[in-house]
Amino acid sequence: MRVSAARYTFRAGGCEMAVCCCYPKTTVMLEDHWPPRSTAFRKLLRRSALRRSSWRKAVVAVVLLTAVHAALLVWGAARHSPVWDEPGHLVAGISHWTFGRFDLYRVNPPLVRVISSLPVVLCSPSMSWRGYRDSVDTRPERSLRRTFVALNTTRLFHLHTVSRWTCVPLIMLGAYACYRWGLELYGEGAGLLAMTLWCCSPAILAYGQLITPDAAAAALGASAGYCFWRWLRREDRTEALAAGCTLGAAQLAKTSWIVLFGVWPLLWLLWCVGRPRRAATEAVWRGPAQFVLLLVIALVALNLGYGFQGSFRKLADYSFVSGLFGGRSANVDGGHRPRNRFEASWVGQLRVPLPSDYLMGIDLQKSDFEGKMWSYLRGEWRLGGWWYY
Question: Checking phi first, is residue 200 left (phi over 0); if not, alpha (psi -120 to 50) or beta?
Fold first, then answer.
């Protein structure tokens, strides 16, 4: 067997180090001045030791924060009774697994419901789908949740507890995103502070123990923002893939994040204006190409979450119940008359790159907001609310 060997010499801070590399072993020999006489070298060693000590302390702090946060969420999920809309989310999630459809509770995307309802489906709860019908102007989950509560009275708390526990990892993802973002921006202290603010937030602790999508959507939105920021700094294909996937996941958690399809292009343009111009043609086109790829990945992820049901339908083929999409006659005095303001125009021939239930959910939610609802603020009830609330 042939054995190859090599000898390398390094000098730093008054210390000379000889490294002999011989396959399969490597021998390190210290020559001349050891320990080093250089003060700079000693300071370098001291700083390295301090960094290692600081890193260990940060790891301990992150682990403790994560453990305490998870324990509070798990305890609260088991301790507190279901809120009024949780049974509706749970029934809708069960219907997704049972029928492979996403029309139930379509005002919110299905990701959190699909995750939270999986252990409940495995528990085989008593179900009755009487009254379940697909209509653009009704919310059948409201009647189905009452039936679900009546059929599973003795197991209701247990079913909600196990469904809540499955959502805890999503909340922890938000804590990690805050930590990493703060760490990469301003250092270890900022990362720990950001994570502490997330873990100790009353809103996160309250909504994070529920199966409603609010806290999970916040976590996925923070993760998407962090991945997008990393892509802006590096313009790497891997970062673009991560940003696209997390953006798609955020869309599948709550429709409120649809604003990111408008905000991110604006932020990217501002970022391009503020940085130095690049000379190479490849570097100039790399950013726009990766940004388009990012958006395409997000749209594919969104449609994939719905199983591509109703994707790329013509806009004229929809029936809407809100004044925004259906026109003034679609929602009059709280009564729904399905219409489509685009059916007679060229816009109606365009194909919508969104799942049909996603778009119809936005329309139905907008219809709810267009009708006057009782609002409470500072000890006063008012029909229709205030201009600022």
Answer: alpha
Find the DSSP H helices in 107-152: 111-122, 141-151
Instruction: Give the residue from 132, 122, 123, 58 showing the smallest Cα distance to 88.
Output: 132
A 10 A CB-CB count for 170 gives: 23
DSSP assigned state of 135: -
Strands 335-336 and 331-332: antiparallel
**Is 111:136 a contact under the CB 8 Å cutoff?**
no
Q: How many CB atoms lie within 10 A of CB 203?
A: 10
What is the rounded distance in angstroms from the CA atom of residue 115 to the CA atom of residue 104?
15
pLDDT of residue 1: 44
Distance separating alpha carbons of residues 275 and 196, to the nearest angstrom: 32
**How many C-beta atoms lie closer than 10 Å to residue 246's C-beta?**
24
pLDDT at position 370: 80
* φ/ψ of residue 80, rounded to 5: -95, 145
Calpha distance 227→242 (Å, rounded): 6
Closest of 121, 302, 308 to residue 220, by C-alpha = 302
Biggest CA–CA distance in the chain, Å, is 92
Radius of gyration of the chain (CA): 28
The structure tokens listed for 306 are 């719905």
Distant-in-sequence, close-in-space partners of 135: CB < 8 Å, separation ≥ 6: none
Predicted TM-score (pTM) of the model is 0.82
3-state secondary structure (DSSP) of residue 177: helix
Distances (CA, A) of 331 to 240, 347, 375: 41, 21, 20
Contact 331, 321 (CB under 8 A): yes
Q: What are phi and psi of 109, to 5 degrees?
A: -65, 165
Judge contact between 224 and 298, C-beta under 8 A: no
In 10 A of CB 33, how many CB atoms? 14
CB 267 within 8 A of CB 224: no
pLDDT digits (tens, 9 = 90+) for 16-34: 444 455 444 444 444 444 4
Question: Is the pLDDT confidence value at 205 over 70?
Answer: yes
Question: Rounded distance, CA 124 to CA 126, Å?
Answer: 7
